[in-house]
Design brief:
Oligomer: single chain
Strand order of the largest sheet: 4-3-7-6-5
Number of strands: 22
Subcellular location: Membrane
Strand content: 15-25%
GO molecular function, one term: ATP binding
Mean pLDDT: 78
InterPro entries: CheY-like_superfamily, HAMP_dom, HATPase_C_sf, HATPase_dom, His_kinase_dom, HisK_dim/P_dom, HisK_dim/P_sf, Sig_transdc_His_kin-like_C
Shape: rod-shaped
Pfam family, one: Response_reg
Main location: membrane
Amino acid sequence: MTPWLPLRTGSLTRRFAITAAILAAVAVLLVAAVSFWLVKRQHIAAVALLQQGEAAFHARTVGNTLHTLAARMDEVADSPILATALVDSAGRETYLAPFLNGLRQINGIPVQVLFTDFEGKPIAGNGLERFDSEQLAWLRARIEQGDKSAAIFERPGGAELVGATLLRYSRTNTPEGALVYKLRLHDLRPDPASTLTWKRQAPAAAGGSRLDLPVKVPHQFDHLGLRLHVNASASGQALKRPWSQYSLIGGIAALLAVLVFLLGSRFSHGLTQDLRKLEQFAAKLGEEGIGAHRAELAGSSETVTLARSINLMLDRLQLQQAHLQQEHRRKDEFLAMLAHELRNPLAPISSAAQLLRMLFAHEPRVREASEVIGRQVRHMTHLVDDLLDVSRVTRGLVTIDKTAVELGAVVREAVEQIVPVIKARGHSLTLDLAPHPLSVSGGRTRLIQVAANVLNNAAKYTPEGGKLHVTLAQDGDRAVLRVRDNGIGIAPDLLPVVFDLFTQAQRTPDRAQGGLGLGLALVKKVVELHDGTVEAHSGGPGQGSTFTIRLPLLHTAAGVAVPAATAAGPVQARRILVVDDNVDAARTLALVLETAGHSVTVEHSAQAALHQAAHTPFDVILLDIGLPDMSGHALAGALRALPHGAGAVLVAVSGYGQEEDRRRSREAGFAAHLVKPVQADELTGTIGQLGVGQPGALMA
């Protein structure tokens, strides 16, 4: 999940609030960062200033000590008493003692002092003197040159500063001796972390917090080039980081962020109020569908423009919806008319084929030709029925008259319908049905149609010699019908849409599978009307497929009895009137009935039928519903009003075969409704059952 997903998918109010919070946080963070930077810069400047001040103080301390030392030595050297004492060889130590006792320390720093004669030979010292030969040789050189000076000598115990001041006799102004003094540079350091350096010495290692300052010294020390190196880190640590200021800045920043977020949330709630109204309208529109409601034209100009656009779109959608509904009605009317017009020519073809099979049963070629014609007629009829069924089912125009149905009997009857296809392709069929009855609430005919379509689909897409396996079992409170084959399988991209309209697997060049891709779509819709589910599974091309149908079981105390077939009794000759404006259909139907032993009269208009029925009594009258001069329903009422027509059994024979058509036939008084093309067995069987005296049972 990306961090920007809430900004892309959340509500507009939330997105505004989050955006405001982000902008506020960025602004506050920038202000806080600048504040932290400024405080840090001030802290660094203060530390640097403190370090420089402390280093300068230490440098002045060293310089002051050396000035004091030089001044004291000059004061002693300028004393006339001291020069006189050096001239007088007797009792010189007595004269020098007061001076030596006062020259032991300068500003607390130990000083070694030594008086010498004009040849540089020691006379007396302050008891601390430790001058080596090199230093005494340097002293004699200074006496010979007649100047006062200083030098630094590096020794294992540390560098030593040695200075010399000449003692001159006041009368002759000649040097009568020298005052030499020495101190350790280490003792001059004002701080243990500092270091004194001089010319001709390697500079001290530089560091991030080390300061290098020159030391102001008396003129006799200038040539030494003394410098003080101070480690200022200790003084920097004395000035602590301003954490209190940092905390104050952070607290103010957090407070500002919260304040800006609350204000942003409040403003965003107000700014999006109009949009939220549109959102509520859209949600209501999604629940109730397109109707007369329209979005309110209120709020900001952008919202009003958006609402006006939505309303215009809804107006167009409503017009398109009305247009589509009208087109659907026209399509249904067209399909019904198409079915009627297709069935009309199929009816005489089917009747003629059956008549040939009956009359020339001993002629193999004629019988074979009639069987071919009959199979193709049934195939065409099946396509027409599927096309009409799928149109009505998808629009919710089909209702199921649910009764208790035993699924085992449904599966066996569906298998009987598919047996010719299975035999033709040489398939091996295995039935594995539950040992006990499994009853569901549904329409028997529709459930047989579902099972037959699934079986037919498996047979079509399984190569010759393949295997089909049908199982019916109970799984909890549901009955499970599973049809498995080892056929061509279903590709992964086809599996999710296998139950959609007109969806089919890849065709072979010879289109051996046939069909329009309607069967599985019908299966899904009809199963859903029975509160069930259907699923398809396949391992891929060449792996076969499995279709699983689950239906809720009907909880009954006993199994549902399978209706027993009515035993065919001896055919009783009937007087039959056939009324159909299609001459071929009427004539072939009459020939089939006459071959069965009935007496048949044919008429092609309603008026001719009324005239015939007024003078001749008939046992059965077969009426086409779509007559040109009068509808079959109206003709049925007129026939009932005739003296000879009141006792006749009326049978509708029509190309209109939907549930609505059957209902209208029942209301018009028809005992049966047969859909063209009518099979000879179905026709004669229906007439035979009507002859028993229970005509109304066939229309239940």
